[in-house]
Each structure stands twice: as structure tokens, then as C-alpha cells.
Design brief:
426 residues; alpha+beta; Rossmann fold; Dna Ligase, domain 1; D-amino Acid Aminotransferase, Chain A, domain 1; 5-stranded parallel beta sheet; binds adenosine monophosphate; binds glycine
């Protein structure tokens, strides 16, 4: 098979790594890819959100399957454009991608289909937002409706601060994304993410996982795209997972079906589990998580290309796979200053370190004079796997220590507090 992967981050490198292991994979291409992906695929420059560029490339290469990594291309309708040309795609069309692209849409979807989620109000004016906030207690949760790269959720104990966030959003601080708001009840508990693979008829779950969003140890510092992740989440036992399937997964798929939304790809359900065990959906994403995927795919025991291809063809029920009975820890190495400004172009040493149980995925890297250099905030993911979390952490941190570049930093406490409630805020 000829396969094209869209995207160029750590998640996409992990997807490419998994696909490249498939005996079915004859040719692997990526757009735009990254230097890590270039070792196992042919990278093609271009904007994966541009439908025309993607369909032209896919046709020119005569690919059998396109796997979409990030949400951007899905929201811009790339999957629809490819399907219109008869090309199989792993990833939903634009209508399915609205589950992530619009929080007002996804909250209404949940309400309409009886999927548990925090009670909410959709607002488009400051008056409406005020009323929605006055009728609630702290913590006040304000969310921009549209895509905001993780910067669209505001949590505050102060009414005045929450109102200020509403004013700024409605005033255009996040552009169109904040012109509609969701104000909702605050939830407490522990968070867990569940990635559902579905072709609209059947579904299978990957391992549960959790990410670490804050920049610094102890869940301090600003929010980032994710400084690490681990899988599986140990406190989610079989019976809780069954309840998640009954209360969230099945109603979500039924809801899509009732709405006539054909969906082939991943649904990422971000869940909050209260101390009493109540399950609520915080959000949906329409693709694999980053940095969760880098931790999840090393636990996957099967043929990932076969899964994506069968799913894209609506034949997911024909494939089977197992999840390895291992623990996985992904430590992200970032550039000093991230998530604020950071320098680029520093040479990265130690990338050739090879050790059983350690896998390095590249994200913000570039090639300069034949050398791999830093080119982004989150530069690399170092993933350790082992029979226990202690061993997986040991591997991940051994791998992280072997890598050096000027200004490199990473959290030292990834997966160390696996039973604690997650950090507050986002
Ligand atoms: P979302 O993008 O909606 O998942 O929100 C991002 C993060 O904000 C979540 O992972 C939670 O940590 C936090 N969050 C979102 N909604 C709520 C809520 N209703 N109550 C408490 N925390 C929330
Ligand atoms: N790690 C959160 C996300 O991928 O959206």
C-alpha cells in the first residue's frame, strides 16, 4: 500500500513509526512531515489544511490511504475532498470534525443525545454571559467556541475575572473563535482520555491515557500543548471502562448516526470522573491526542496500518489487535522559554542513542547542514515502556538524559502522581 500521513508533529512521527512497521506498507509519504519522519517516509512540503494541495499530492502519488494527524485539515474538509476523489481516509469529514471545531456544537450534541457533560449556556453577548455566570458558583468556566490551540478555556474563582475573560473573548481576543462562548458548571475529579477508533459501525478503544499540560513540575507554570503523557491510567479499572463505554462511547456513536454524520477515524473523549464516580465529557477531539499518541502507540499490538485502512473502508470489525500489558511514559523535551518565545536552530546531540524500551519521536526539529537542530517549542518526545510505571519512567528519563541541546528542558515528574487529581486549570 501507498500511504500519506498529514501533519508533522510528534503525534504524526509516532503514527508514521507505527505504520512503517506494517508489512502492508510499501510506500510511506508525509506532508509536511519532519526530519524524524523523513527517516521512514518521503516528506512533501505543503499545507495539509489546503484541500487542493492535499488532493493533488494524493492523486499524483496514487496513494491508497491518507491518515490525517491534526484537527486542522479535518476541519477544513480535507477528508471530504479526498473521499470525493475516491481516496480512502482515516479521519472524519468536516461535519464530524465540528465536534472539536465548535464547543457550542459539541455541547449541544451531548445534550441532545443524553451524553453526560457539565450543564452549560451558549452566549454571544456580554449580557448573556453575565447572566450565565451570575447563575453559577465558582469555579467559573468560560470557553471559546472555536479552535484556540489549547488557549480557549478560562477557569477562575473570581466572577470579575470570568467576566473579564468573556469581555475579551467577545471583543475578539481570539478572533472568530471567541465570538461565541460556552459558560459551564465547574466539575471536580480526575481526568482521563479515551481514544475511540470507529468506522461508524463498530468501535474499539485504545489504552486510556493522561497528559500533563503545565510547563513545570508540580503542575506549575503556564499551559502548554502538553509536556508529557502516560498510559494506561491505572485507576480506571475494567468496570469503570465498561461504564465509560455505556454512558459515553455508545451514545456518542449513536448520536453521530442519528445526526447522519458518517465518521471514520478517532474520537478522543476527554473525561472528568468525580470523586463519587460520575463520568462527564469535558470535550471531544476528532483525532489522536498529542502527546498521548506517542505513549499510546508503543502499547498497541497489531497492524496500525491495517486498522486505519479497514476503518477508512468501514470494515473495522474485521481487524483485531491487542494492547500490550506494559506501561508507557512520554517525556517531552522543550526549548527554553516555551510556551513563550524560544530560540531555534540549536544542534541536537544524542539522537542516535538506541536502547530497548526507549523510542524518540521528533516534533519541533529541522535539518541544517545535515544536522538535526531545534525548530519548535516542543522538540522531541522520549517514550519509555516497561512492565511497571517505575520502569517505564526510568527508561523515558534515561532516554531524555541522553539528549542534549542548548536550552533543553523537560518535566521531571511525568507519570509520578498517577492517582492524584489533575492540575487545576488548563
Ligand atoms: P476542554 O478543552 O474543554 O477539555 O478544557 C480543557 C481543560 O480545562 C480540561 O482538560 C480540564 O482540565 C479543564 N476544564 C474544562 N472544562 C471544565 C469544567 N467544566 N470543570 C473543570 N475543569 C474543566
Ligand atoms: N493532549 C490534548 C490534545 O491532544 O488535545
Amino acid at each position: 500500500m501507498k500511504v500519506l500521513i498529514l501533519g508533522g508533529g510528534g503525534r504524526e512521527h509516532a503514527i508514521a513509526w507505527a505504520v512503517a512497521q506494517s508489512p502492508r506498507c510499501d510506500e510511506l509519504h508525509s506532508m509536511p512531515g519532519n526530519p524524524g519522519m523523513a527517516q521512514i517516509s518521503t516528506c512533501h512540503p505543503g499545507d495539509p489544511c489546503d484541500c487542493r494541495s492535499v488532493t493533488d499530492l494524493a492523486e499524483r502519488l496514487s496513494v491508497d490511504l491518507v491518515i490525517v494527524g491534526p484537527e486542522g485539515p479535518l476541519v477544513s474538509g480535507v477528508a471530504d475532498a479526498l473521499r470525493a476523489k475516491g481516496i480512502d481516509v482515516f479521519g472524519p469529514g468536516r461535519d464530524g470534525a465540528m465536534l472539536e471545531a465548535s464547543k457550542a456544537h459539541s455541547k449541544s450534541f451531548m445534550k441532545r443525545h443524553g451524553i453526560p457533560t457539565a450543564s452549560f449556556t451558549i452566549c454571544t453577548t456580554l449580557e448573556e454571559a453575565k447572566e450565565a455566570l451570575y447563575s453559577r458558583k465558582p469555579p467559573y468556566i468560560v470557553k471559546a467556541d472555536g479552535l484556540a490551540a489549547g488557549k480557549g478555556v478560562f477557569i477562575s474563582d473570581q466572577l470579575s475575572e470570568a467576566l473579564e475573560s468573556c469581555g475579551e473573548l467577545l471583543g475578539g481576543s481570539l478572533g472568530e473563535a471567541g465570538k461565541t462562548l460556552v459558560v459551564e458548571d465547574g466539575l471536580v475529579g480526575r481526568e482521563v482520555s479515551v481514544m475511540i477508533v470507529t468506522d461508524g459501525n463498530s468501535y474499539r478503544l485504545l489504552s486510556t491515557s493522561q497528559d500533563h499540560k503545565r510547563a513545570l513540575d508540580g503542575d506549575r507554570g503556564p499551559n502548554t500543548g502538553g509536556m508529557g503523557a502516560y498510559a494506561p491510567v491505572p485507576w480506571v479499572d475494567r468496570s469503570m471502562l465498561q461504564e465509560i463505554e455505556e454512558k459515553v462511547v455508545k451514545p456518542t456513536l449513536l448520536g453521530l448516526d442519528r445526526d447522519d454524520t458518517s465518521y471514520r477515524g478517532i474520537i478522543y473523549a476527554g473525561l472528568m470522573i468525580s470523586p463519587q464516580g460520575k463520568i462527564d465529557v469535558l470535550e471531544y477531539n476528532v483525532r489522536l491526542g498529542d502527546p498521548e499518541t506517542q505513549a499510546l502507540l508503543p502499547l498497541f499490538d497489531g497492524d496500525w496500518l491495517e486498522v486505519c485502512h479497514s476503518c477508512a473502508q468501514g470494515k473495522l470489525s474485521e481487524v483485531s489487535w491487542a494492547l500490550k500489558d506494559l506501561c508507557s511514559v512520554n517525556v517531552v523535551i522543550a526549548s527554553e522559554g516555551y510556551p513563550g518565545d524560544y530560540e531555534k536552530g540549536h544542534p541536537i546531540e544524542g539522537l542516535d542513542h538506541k536502547e530497548e524500551g526507549i523510542t524518540v519521536f521528533q516534533a519541533g526539529t529541522a535539518l541544517k547542514d545535515g544536522k538535526t537542530v531545534t525548530a519548535g517549542g516542543r522538540v522531541l518526545s522520549v517514550v519509555g515502556t516497561g512492565p511497571t510505571f517505575e520502569e517505564a519512567r526510568e527508561k523515558a528519563y534515561t532516554g531524555a538524559k541522553a539528549i542534549e541541546f542548548k536550552g533543553a528542558f523537560y518535566r521531571k515528574d511525568i507519570a509520578s502522581n498517577r492517582d492524584k487529581p489533575k492540575e487545576e486549570g488548563v
